Amino acid sequence: MKKVEIYILGGFLGSGKTTLLRNILEQEKAAERKIAVLLNEMGSISIDSGMIQDDVPLKELFDGCICCTIQDKLESQLQELLLNDLDAIYIETTGAAHPVEVLDGILSPLFAESLEYKGIITVVDMLRWRDRESLSPQLKQLLMEQIRHADYILLNKQDLVSEMEAAKIAFSMAGINPGATTVLTSHSAVSLADLKALKMKKKAKHAKTEIGQHLNLKAIVHHFSNAINMEDFDSWLKNLPDTVYRMKGYISFKNSQYPYLFQYSYGMPFFMQESMKMPLNLVVIGENLEPEVIIEQLKDMEQ
Ligand SMILES: Nc1nc2c(ncn2[C@@H]2O[C@H](COP(=O)(O)OP(=O)(O)OP(=O)(O)O)[C@@H](O)[C@H]2O)c(=O)[nH]1
């Protein structure tokens, strides 16, 4: 029986996993391979799934990460995906996932005959890595674990650091995980041929760390009922605590016909105008956040 290749895409919040997935899907399509995607997002609303083309089978796991809360669901979703005649499955894990625990789910005896596990691909945001001292000890450890268990490391956002910094970071990766292939990328641009050449590393037996459960990461979801003022939103962004790591969503601004896709990662906002109506949901992810306060502030802007 033909085995279906399976890849795990990991990496910190906002590092470039979705960008990587989009690149891969384009290349897979050009190669005429049949692909399925399993998305696992924090927060109960999907922002990323809109970018997956309709002909790609897609399963989504919400509320919690694969590693801690929904292991059984992962198995049943994989089983369903395997009913399609597939060449490969890509799992995009939440930025808060511990990769080895995701791996445990896939390596279940249930799938021994049907899946060929290819490896963990970790995307590292080089800015985030450079400034990791500002993270809480738990998040710093998670970042480290994501790197340590990777088979393939993308040192991403090369455009945002100097050559010297990039070289230094690449050097430190070799110290942390000498067995992994490391590449420098901008916008997670890698060639599929490279990824397919991945050979599974022999995984050392690991003690279950259950890091995900101890992180105080929260995902807050807000639905806007009205358009808001761009200036108000801008000043809200400027006053956000630096424990807000990631935001994604659609925002409608006064005087513009269609909403904007809003992305925020590590203090950097990014807006792109859409050409149609979108559900006005915003997901805010961070540590030690007070959901009531944030929702109240967002609601105030809608007055
Ligand atoms: N400047 C720059 N921006 C990048 C690069 N790669 C990704 N981005 C941007 O960083 C933001 C986050 O990228 P995503 O691909 O959505 O990150 P992610 O890891 O999927 O994020 P989560 O799903 O929230 O964990 C987006 O605004 C991207 O356009 C890069 O190499 N350089």
From TrEMBL:
For this entry, the protein name equals GTP-binding protein
InterPro entries in the record, alphabetically? Answer: CobW-likC_sf, CobW-like_C, CobW/HypB/UreG_nucleotide-bd, P-loop_NTPase, Zinc-reg_GTPase_activator
Task: Output the Gene Ontology terms for molecular function.
Answer: hydrolase activity; nucleotide binding
Parts of the chain that traverse the membrane: none
Q: Please give the family membership noted in the entry.
A: Belongs to the SIMIBI class G3E GTPase family. ZNG1 subfamily.
Tell me which UniProt keywords the record has, alphabetically: Chaperone, Hydrolase, Nucleotide-binding
Q: Which residues are in the CobW C-terminal domain?
A: 217-302
Cite the PANTHER family for this sequence: COBW DOMAIN-CONTAINING PROTEIN, COBW-RELATED
**What is one term from the GO cellular component aspect held by the record?**
cytoplasm
Do you know which Gene3D superfamilies this protein is assigned to?
A: CobW-like, C-terminal domain, P-loop containing nucleotide triphosphate hydrolases
Keyword Nucleotide-binding listed: yes
Q: Which residues form a coiled coil?
A: none
Query: Which reaction is catalysed here?
Result: GTP + H2O = GDP + phosphate + H(+)
Does the keyword Zinc feature in the UniProt annotation? no
Query: Sorted alphabetically, which CDD domains does this protein's record hold?
Result: CobW-like
Source organism of this protein record:
Peribacillus saganii
